Every structure is written in structure tokens, then in C-alpha cells.
Amino acid sequence: MRNKVICLCTGVFLCLGRVRAEVAIRVGHFPNITHAQALVGLANGAFQKTLGDVKIEVRTFTAGPSEIEALFAKALDLVYIGPGPAINGFVKSGGELVVIAGACSGGASLVVRNDLPIKDPADFRGKRIASPQLGGTQDIALRRWLKEHGLAPVEKGGDVRVLPMSNADQLTLFVQKKLDGAWAPEPWAARLVVEGQGRVYLDERTRWPRRQFAATVILVRKKFLSEHPRLVEKWLAAHVDVTAWIKKNPALARALIHQEIKRITTQSLPDAVIAQAWDRLEFTADPLSSSLTRNADSAYELGFLGRRKPDLSGLVDLKPLSKVLLAKGRPPIAP
After folding, report:
1. What is the reported pLDDT for 198?
2. CATH 3.40.190.10 domain residues, the chain
């Protein structure tokens, strides 16, 4: 009888061991230079090394709203994403999605055709200007800029045709001269310049204090965070280390990012594109919370967050990141 009990207990412990080993984290990101930490850390094994036996399941996306839908469906746990969709996801989920770190600052520009005499905001009247997706980060930035200069999209009674479309379609139509400009993230802004013979009319960094604004943040399901706090902290620890490695080894990082983008998209980027895009980016774990608030205000004013101004007091949770930074002997990031 005693042997049977021992065997039974052993079987239970083995079963529990298998359950623990099968814990996974499901991560989403773009094959995009602004999601550099995801590309580098997954490629060089930094995340897997820090997480140990935890399985990492990865999905790639080309638009933030699609990542939000996957989070709502509980098909993902953590994503690298732009601030626009992150804020929208927080609001629509009733606070069930929260920002826990930053990844990238900068990396967005308004690029126009070089053969057009566009010098002042008034010159955009009657023009066809693209953004990656309706309600996305660059779409909000474009519409806010138009509004500030007394311009408006055609559907709002203005005379600027704002055309949300994929970045790849932007480049194709730009080359064909069927688009006059685009507010695009890197490396697509650089591609419009290098491959599309365009020029940067406006580097978005010039519109922000200290030339810093959140381009990519880390968003997590709050339930996953509460159920697996140590796992999320380990991910953030690796994220911080990868960020430091990228900044210390820019040439190696650029080569690895280039390699991963080519592997995922089957398309190679010209060295000139990577170099130009890199110069307009800053990699940081700071979510730059004040820029998120300003983005949210713009999204609300433009009608993307409903009729009632949302309460964003719980949008950013820096406690896990602060714990990680303190463990590494670094000061926490101020809210």
C-alpha cells in the first residue's frame, strides 16, 4: 500500500512538473526596426535564456489594431505596439490592457514627393496623404497636424485626402506618383525617401519636448500580469538588457535586425534605408508616459476614443519595470 501511495504521489509531482514546463508566453510584434528589441532578443536567444524553460510563442503583425484584436481574443499575452492602438486597447478593454515599458522613441516622418512644390502646410490642400491604418499612431499624428494648421480630411469637410493603407501599398503608390505624401514609421519613411525618391518634409521628433515621443511600447494583458508576475518581470529584464546591447552595439544590432526582417518578410532592405532610419530612432525602456497622454488627448479630440473622455489613470503600470531596474542597480523611471 505504501508503495502505491509513493507511486501515486510521484505521478502527481511529475504531472505538475509537466504543467509548469508547459507555461508559455505568447508575444506579438512587427517585423519593423521600431520593434528592434523583439527582433534582436528573439533572434539571439536573449529572451529564451532569461525565461528558461518557458515556451515563447511568437506572431508577427503589420498593424497595431490587429494585435489588439488578438489580445482581446486572449490569443496573445504581450505585444510590442504603437501608442495609438495601445491607448485604444486600454480604453476599449476597460483597463484590462496596460503599458508596462517603452521600446522605441521617434521614427516617424511626413514624407512628400520630391517633384512637388510643397513648402508650407497650405500646399497640402488637394493632396493625397497616406497613413498606415485608420486610428493608428501615425494616422492620429497626421490628422492632429492637419488640424493644427487649419486643414482637414475630405470626409471632415476639408480638402486633404487622407488615405489609410498598408506601408507596402504606400511605397508602391508613392513610386507610381499616385500618392503625394505619407506619414510613415521607420523603416518605411526611409524607404519612401531612398526608393521612392521622396524627401522628409517633417521629422515628428521636432514636434515633441526633447525630441522624444513613444513610438513603440510593451502592452500586456493585466490578467496575465497578475497570474505570471515573475514571468513578465523576466521578460522585462531581458528587454532592458537587449535595449542596452542595441545601444552599445549599433552595427551588430542593425545587421541582426536586417537579417530578421528579411527572414520574416522575405524582403531585404537597402543598407541606406537601415542607416537613415536608424538615425531617427532612440531605443529606450521608458514608455515616455507624457507623450502617451498627449496621444490620447489627440485621439479623443479626433473622435477615436468615444464621446466621453476616458480616464487614463491606469494606462501605464511601471511597478514591474521599476522592480527590474532596481534589481539591476538602476534608478526607476519616473511616471
Report:
1. 98
2. 2-106+212-327, 108-210
